[in-house]
Amino acid sequence: MDKVLIIDDSDFDRKMIKKAIAFKDDSLEFTELSSGKSVAALIALETPKIAIIDIRMPGMDGFEVLDVIRSNPDLCDLPVLMVSGSEQPEDREMATAHGASGYFVKPPSAADYFSLGRDIYDQYLCGTSS
Amino acid sequence: MIDTLNSILDTHPDLICRMDKELNFTYANEAAATFFLMSKDALIGTHLFLRSEEKQHEVIKSVLGNICPESPSVTSLQRIDRPAGPQYVLFTIIGLYSDENVLQGYQSVGRDVTSKTLLEHQVAAQTKALDAVHVELRSVLDTVPSLIWYKDDKNKILRLNQAAAASMGMTVEEVEGKNTYDLFGEAAKDYHDADLSVFNSGKAIRGLVEPFTPDSGEQLWVQSDKIPFTDGEDGPRILVVSTDITELKEQEATLKSINKNLDDFASLASHDLQAPLRKIGISAELMQLELGDALPAEATAYFDDIAAGVNHMRQLIKCFLKFMRASPEGVDLGPVNLNNVLRQVANNEQGHLDETGGSLILPDAEIYVRGDNALLAQVFTNLVSNAIKYRSERRLVEIEITAETEKQYWVISVRDNGLGIDPSFADQVFDLFGRAKPYSEIEGSGVGLALCRRIITLHGGTIELIETGNAGSCFQVKLFRARRPNDG
Q: Would you identify the CATH topology of the domain B144-244?
């Protein structure tokens, strides 16, 4: 069963991302973390199909979490999407520089969230179920 | 024999004469007679004091008093005032003594040294004046706060002022004439290289900002002008004038840090405000989507109110962020054709004007100002859209933009016939979120005019509300005039 890892300090945003992707496929398994501190240990145990990481988090920020993931040679191809609460041009550049697969701004409405969930599913999860 | 000798002396250019011991002339050559303004024959037999000024008599007596058999010769420079100017004659007077050392008379040889003496006086006066200039220059050099050095192309410091010496922890005397390599070792190479590039190019470098570490060890910042020149045949020279701008650099760094903090704060505030807003909006939307059928009909209206409130708040945050980010670094000031800007604003607002049946008149004069196209468009869009938004329902909207020059400014007036602003609120219209209270029921962010003032201030200009009342308002914007750029 494909796993989706969501790391975000906001319960609400984790819930919405999960809801939006699960709306397309309720058989997916979701792992939620409110910080990136334990990401290395977790990923070593169970490799997700995709990781979605919030950029601004207290303590370890999203780019540091991404660096930890990319420092593992087994995870260099893992799709990682970076998420920001508001549009910041420098965030998009930093995401690319740190080796993220994509970047998106948290949608302002539920309809947009579902549309984003559909796009993520189609691009990274559709037809890859194992 | 004496006649033969006298005939030789007669035409000698020096003044030659003989006197008896009572100082009566017994011989005078042509030059001496001319000196005494008489003929030779008339002079002979007369007394010296009859042929000289009275004030000279004591001097002559004193000079002759020094003559004795042991030291029979004296030399004396005499100044004689002539109508054409002073004449200087160097007299050598020899006492003529008998074998028994009895004074018999005097022989005098005088040489006109007027040209030489005047030249000496002139040189002395010029030397004195030069000394005064030197003292004055030194005083000026030592009074200015700048650090000043003269150096040669071998990195030798020829002259410097006290401030420069103090910055090196030394006195002027300790540094002048020293080679910078002897004072600073290898560290002097950087300064020397920079100087050599000036020597080689022959062009002055001005406003060079460079770090400078004086003897105290604390790093300072100086702004230097390096000017090459040649000093006669002594070879190339360089004048280095440095001004300590450490305080300015520190202020600049503080300002940058404050701006960065403000920017960070704006981003953070925007991010932190967006998060709960998104939560409210999305939750309300989900509630409507998922429980829509189960909710009473009037609940839909409440959800619409929530959505409108969330949108309004989102706009406010956007405007706030825009306001905070309008910083001097982001402003690119160049010549802007304001007529084009105003035409663009008019086009954008035409729809709103048509809806209200209003009119907008633009200025005829060609206006070029120093500014940023996009930011100025934002200012005038704000003013025009405010004029439409705060219109009076009793009359059609009339907006007139006029322009006139005032010294180095273009003064642009935007006059409307709208509601006007209560004079007691007029001071607050440019405050952030400082909307004119009586009209607070009209939708607006309260950021627009604050942003206008911030933008115009960044342009070095001013924006003011100069008139307001029941008949409307007039905003005045002053911007620096610019030259029309060359076509092509």
A: Beta-Lactamase (3.30.450)
Q: Are residues A56 and B271, on separate chains, in Cβ contact within 8 Å? A: yes
Tokens found for residue B487 = 């076509």
Which residues of chain A from 48 to 107 reach within 8 Å of chain B, CB to CB? Answer: 56, 84-86, 88, 106-107
Percent of chain B with pLDDT over 70: 92
Compute the distance between CA of residue A82 and CA of residue B410 in angstroms, rounded to an integer. 49
Span B310-320, pLDDT tens digits: 887 887 777 67
Confidence of residue B263 (pLDDT cuts 50, 70, 90): confident
State in words which class domain B331-480 has: alpha beta
- Band of residue B215 on the pLDDT scale cut at 50, 70, 90: low
A38-54 pLDDT, tens per residue? Answer: 887 788 778 899 999 99
**What mean pLDDT value characterizes chain B?**
85
Residues of B380-415 as b/e, b for ≥16 C-beta within 10 angstroms?
Answer: bbbbbbbbbbbbeeeeebbbbbbbeeeeebbbbbbb
DSSP bridge pairs for A4 = A30, A50
Q: What is the pLDDT of residue B43?
A: 92
Q: Which residue type, as a one-letter code, is found at position B187?
A: A
**Nearest residue in B to A10, CA atom:** B275
- What is the DSSP track for B343-364? HHHHHHHHHHHHHHT-EEE---
What are the structural domains of chain A?
Answer: 3-125 (3.40.50.2300)
What mean pLDDT comes out for the span B58-68?
A: 91
Please give the angle made by the CA atoms of B447, B452 and B455, to the nearest 5 degrees: 120
ipTM: 0.84
> Which residue from A minimizes the CA distance to B264?
A88
A14 in contact with chain B, both atoms CB, cutoff 8 A: no
Q: What is the pLDDT of residue A130?
A: 45
What number is the average pLDDT over the span B235-256? Answer: 86
In chain A, the residue whose alpha carbon lies closest to the alpha carbon of B317 is: A86
* Architecture of the domain spanning B2-112: 2-Layer Sandwich (3.30)
- Nearest residue, CB atoms, B281 vs list A13, A86, A108: A108
DSSP string, B228-273: EEE-TTS-EEEEEEEEE-HHHHHHHHHHHHHHHHHHHHHHHHHHHH
Of B83, B77, B94, nearest to B37 by C-alpha is B83
Whether A109 and B282 lie within 8 Å, measured CB to CB: yes
Q: Per-domain residue ranges for chain B?
A: 2-112, 144-244, 249-325, 331-480
For A74, the token pair is 């087994």
